[in-house]
Amino acid sequence: MKKNKKLNIGLVVSAHFTHDVYTSFLAPLQPILIERLGLSYILSGLLNFIQRFPSALNPIFGYYADRINKKYMIALAIFLSAIGMSLISLVPNYFYIAGMLLLTGFGSSFFHIPAPVILKRLEGKKVGFVMSLYMIGGELARTLGPLILGGFLAYFAFEKSYLMIVPALCFILIFLKNLNISEAMVKSEADLKKKSEESKESLIQGLLRHKQEYLFLLSFLFLRGFSKGCITYYLPLYFSSIRGVDTLAAGMYISIVEIAGVVGVLTMGLISDKLGSKKTLFFVALLAPVFILLFIKTSGFLSILMLIISGFLTIGQGPLVLVFVQSIDELRPSFANSIYMSINFLSSSLAIIIIGFFFDFIGINTTFYLAIFLGFLALFSLKLIPFKQ
């Protein structure tokens, strides 16, 4: 990589980290909001849905994202998310907080739609590697964000949360000043914008033109979402209910899985640049449920080792899917990315809800086995996805 290219990629990855640090504040802030506003757990849980609701509108945002300057769209996204989370202590009631989180949700959509597109155009060859770096930025933000917030609250009162916007404003200035897009990329973006504007194809027509890719992608992500949900979102419940681990200690296992996932994200991107994204994804998606099964069937240190490998393989699939998404629609890459974001949000959310339903009716252990079976079933959908290597 040339020095300028490295700087640009580093800035976009850093922007991902900066943005996602702010959106990660909601979970650790919930106990404070519940206490101060007297919220029920239902209303508290609804805040997460409100923050993510703009994802449902991603196809609309993505349709127009290819026609505007992505550099300024990213800067605006960071500003919206930072101001939404930083001013949350100043609003008087639940409805205003919901409004702030909705603002943060729009910022999240505005960021995640164009950022992978810029990275693909910056690095045309080793796309898997840069997508890995991009995802590591987000994973580290979700890991460190609560710690950053905790450090802030240890020195400042919650009422001074507005001070948290200062780092975001500083980064935005650095980002806008130092992100230098090459003349070739500017020309490529201009040509893409011109073609997009000249195209008479509507949003629905663009969706239907690639319906096969999107349908099989939806099927794969939905079926895979069961096993991923079990070893991430529901993992503490599994350890506390099935293995009798203390609730606090059970929560630590998520950190183990997330750290393994960060390593997996980087490794899979490098491997895919050598072997091809579809071949790598199929192999990894085949092994992931195998190691989740081994995690359930073993105990002690061996079981934890199987869990680490499961996290490595399951979360590590992220950049491989992103590489495919960026190849779906060369004319409107931001639109394709927005469709993926909506599909991923809806499929994972639905899978997690269904998992909870099965926990109540067939038990946690049996549901884990069912999730493993569905993980193998997802391979059929993956096999039918028409990848462009």
Can you describe this structure in just a few lines?
The protein has 389 residues and is mainly alpha-helical. Helix content is 82%, strand content 0%.
Q: Which key phrases capture this entry?
A:
389 residues, 19 helices, Growth Hormone, Chain: A, 2 domains, mainly alpha, single chain
Question: CATH topology of the largest domain, anyone?
Answer: Growth Hormone, Chain: A
SSE arrangement, N to C: HHHHHHHHHHHHHHHHHHH
Q: What is the CATH top level name of the largest domain?
A: Mainly Alpha
What is the correct CATH architecture of the largest domain? Up-down Bundle
Strand residues, percent:
under 5%
* Rg (CA only): 21 Å
The quaternary organization reads as single chain
Spans with pLDDT under 50 lasting ≥5 residues? none
Please count the helical segments: 19
Report the count of strand segments: 0
Q: What composes the largest sheet?
A: none
